[in-house]
Amino acid sequence: MKLFFWQPWLIPILPLAGALINGLFGKRFAKSVVASIALFFTGASFVVASAHAYTLVHSGADALETSYGTWIRAGNFSVDFGFYLDHLSLVMMLVVTGVGFLIHVYSVAYMEHEGGYYRFFSYLNFFMFFMLTLVLANNYLLMFVGWEGVGLASYLLIGFFFLKDSAANAGKKAFITNRVGDFGFLIAIFLLIQHFGTLSYASVFRIASHLPVETTAGLLTAIGLLMLVGACGKSAQIPLYVWLPDAMEGPTPVSALIHAATMVTAGVYMVCRSNPIFSRAPIALLAVAIIGTLTCFFAATIGITQTDIKRVLAYSTVSQLGYMFMAAGVAAYSASIFHLMTHAFFKALLFLGAGSVIHGIGGEQDMRKMGGLRKYMPWTFWTMLIATLAISGFWPFAGFFSKDEILWQAFSSPHGSKIFWAVGLLTAFMTSFYMFRLIFLTFTGEYRGALPEAHAAHGSHDDHGHHGTPHESPWFMLAPLVLLAILSAIGGLVGIGNRFEHFLDPVIQNVSVEQSSAHLAEGAAAAEPEGRPGESSGTETLLKFVSVFVAFAGLGLAWFLYVKSPELPAKIAAASGGLYKLVLNKYWIDELYSVAIIGPLVAFSRVVLWQSVDQKLIDGSVNESAVAARDVSQVIRQQQSGLVRSYAGWIAAGAAAVVVYMVWMGTR
Amino acid sequence: MIPLSWYLLLGAFLFACGVTGFLIKRNIITLFMSIELMLNGVNLSFIAFATSLGTLDGHIFVFFVMVVAAAEAAAGLAIIISVYRTRETLNVDRVNLLKL
Asked: What is the DSSP letter of A75?
């Protein structure tokens, strides 16, 4: 029993079993049965994952690798089916199964009134399977399988309300945008195969660790940059972030699980997992940091102007992912993973809270039609307030520790720069501002939505019926909120005294600081050469105060604009004119893409690929050969007349021809 | 002595008569007779070669052909009767079942 229980493959296989049972037979089950199956398999996966985590931590080993035989073999190259459990995948695994389980619980009530109940849970379990495969794989190819699988699950779930055009299109957009990134990742894998001859983490990193730090662009830089392209797609970084806000068309639990807590962090996980490669490719690392910093700033500015509650959270997610990339880009991988974990808690909570709000007021998502909901749904309010405090970085909530660690690393790391830190700090201010704007608009003041009578008028967005007066959600939805609120409140405490960082130490192969900083001598930072020694703790404390101050400033500004004098924002928007419109329309990036890339691509596909190549060349050649065959047959067909004498005539003619030929041959 | 080529020419002539008859006549019985004519044209060539070469192979072949022709005549006439019973005609062009 113990031995069977111990198998790591159970962790991903359990949700797969749930997905298969619900997917194949769920149509005939009652809703309660479907929900029980989904919850059981996810919960069991969490239990097994916890057991493994416990064993790993107590065994003191750096990593447990298990292989279940060869998957692909070609010459000297082979890929195994294998799982690699170390402290990094352990954190990811627990986040995925733990938060995933809570979101499953939440969905039981949230999806109650939707069609396709079994389909939803089947997809959700299916997602868990691939996410766990991605996280636990012991080589890049298996990781890629999970990587594509979660993309598929994401596509299916974004388009869950597939009768809505916008949802179907959002699903396609997410999938296609991700393909661009996957292309980069795939080429990185090819380069690894070509130059390293292996894809397993252990061997790749062993080989990489013998390579010198690349000061100029080289193989590792190329691999790193290509991986970054993949990560940009999956983790919604500039320039491939456009799919994530649209992905909010999916049901809210999906946004919480896939597009906030787990799948979108896969890129961060990949960069951190590949830290031995990135640490030896400073150029790639710098690119990671720059993209992260740009994204976190850029997305936060858009978040300020959005009025759809889920879109604010979506841009906030993009922005927070930017923080993680920034951290990874200054080689502070553990800070990145730390923020990934706390972000999973509070952003899942925010999305679930938003879902609870949407559920409670009958499918409305526009914050301008909310307000005053605090007295209708106190539990949702308090839990969301905790999450907001956490994401804004108030002490002692989770986000404070992780975000502060990132800002400090950006400031002090040898790969860091004060510019990253300053932009990060500014973004922290904006984060606090837009999050409290959301809270104030939603929960304080007077309810601006239509009350019961007029309610039937507006089309319900999430397909939720019209409920009448706003009401608190059922306990099945509130329980996960409360648990996540507790995690958001205290989850950061594991980071005190750099405990979390040391926990991940075995995973992060630190290239010696002198070696890399020597190469970066003329680089921007050139801060403390020893990294983060004790004497700089004064600076660190000061910076902590600065970031808390900034969070308070954001809170204050939001309070001033949306509570004290709520007429001001409109005036400011009018005064700033073009700038406001620019940001409100998301910098017209979607429009730019559609003009610059999608338009020409579609035109090319239509005129050249479809009308010329497909219709004329391919269809044409097939049709022409069919016509030719028919015409020839038409002639030959006449010969089968059924008249014995005509056949005999042909035989005689044939015999005569043979005779003539032989005579002719004989006379030559 | 009559030269070999005369025999061969006569055989070829008989064979050609058979072929022509087979191709232009419509009555099945006539076709049957044409076939016999072709067989006998060939038989004549066999015999001529056998005599001229002084071997027995040709004679043996001729007997084979005669036996097969006799068997064929029996089976063929049976078929002809059967055809006549179902179709009530002996015109081959009306018996075009081979088209199917």
From this structure: T
What span, in angstroms and rounded, lies between the C-alpha atoms of A562 and A584? 18
What is the average per-residue pLDDT within A100-129? Answer: 91
The answer on pLDDT for A132 being more than 80 is: yes
CA distance B44 to A414: 112
CB contact set of A174 (below 8 Å; sequence gap of 6+): A151, A154, A155, A158, A243, A244, A246, A247
Domain range summary for chain B, segments of one domain joined by +:
27-91
d(CA A126, CA A537): 46
ipTM value, please give it: 0.83
Q: What is the mean pLDDT of chain A?
A: 86
C-alpha A126/C-alpha A21 separation (Å) is 11
SS3 string, A259-311, reads HHHCHHHHHHHHHHHCHHHHCCCHHHHHHHHHHHHHHHHHHHHHHHHCCEHHH
Please check whether residue A340 is in contact with residue A324, taking contact to mean a CB–CB distance below 8 angstroms: yes
With an 8 Å Cβ cutoff, are A644 and B19 in contact?
A: no
Select from A380, A335, A570 the least CA-distant residue to A478. A380
Please indicate whether, in this complex, the C-beta atoms of A643 and B96 are within 8 angstroms of each other: yes
**Cα gap A11→A89, rounded to integer Å:** 12
For residue A467, the model assigns a pLDDT of 52
DSSP category for residue A137:
B
Residue of A nearest to B24 (CA): A645
Say if CB A155 and CB A171 are below 8 A apart: yes
Q: Give me Rg for the CA atoms of chain B.
A: 17
Whether residue B92 and residue A644 make contact (CB cut-off 8 A), yes or no, is yes
Q: Which residues of A touch B96 (CB under 8 A)?
A: 641-644
All residues of chain A having their beta carbon less than 8 Å from the beta carbon of residue B95 are: 644
CA–CA separation, A46 and A11 (whole Å): 8
* Alpha carbon distance A554, A425 (integer Å): 11
Determine contact: A59 vs chain B, CB below 8 A: no
A318-357 pLDDT tens trace:
999 999 999 999 988 989 999 999 999 999 999 999 999 9
CB atoms B95 and A644 under 8 Å:
yes
Quote the distance between the C-alpha of residue A588 and its chain's center: 23
Euclidean distance between CA atoms B27 and B39, whole angstroms? 19
Of A641, A642, A652, the CB nearest to B23: A652
Q: What is the dihedral of CA A43, A99, A241, A304, to 10 degrees?
A: 150
Residue A640 and residue B99: Cβ atoms within 8 Å?
yes
Query: 3-state SS string over chain B?
Result: CCCHHHHHHHHHHHHHHHHHHHHHCCEHHHHHHHHHHHHHHHHHHHHHHHHHHCCCHHHHHHHHHHHHHHHHHHHHHHHHHHHHHHHCCCEHHHCCHHHC
The pTM assigned to this predicted structure is 0.78
Residue with tokens 């700089």: A536
Q: What tokens appear for A239 in the block?
A: 């320039």
Give the closest residue to A98 by CA, choosing from A49, A150, A135.
Answer: A49
Asked if B23 and A641 come within 8 Å (Cβ–Cβ), the reply is: no
Q: Which amino acid makes up residue A331? A: A
Mutation target vs B (from A643, A646, A647; most B CBs, 10 A cutoff): A643
Q: CB–CB of A304/A236 below 8 Å?
A: no
CA distance readout (Å), B7 to A659, B2, B12, B35, B53: 19, 8, 9, 19, 14
What architecture is domain B27-91?
Answer: Orthogonal Bundle (1.10)
Closest A-chain CA to B18: A652
Residues A576-603 have a mean pLDDT of 84
Question: Hey, what are A56's tokens?
Answer: 């790993």
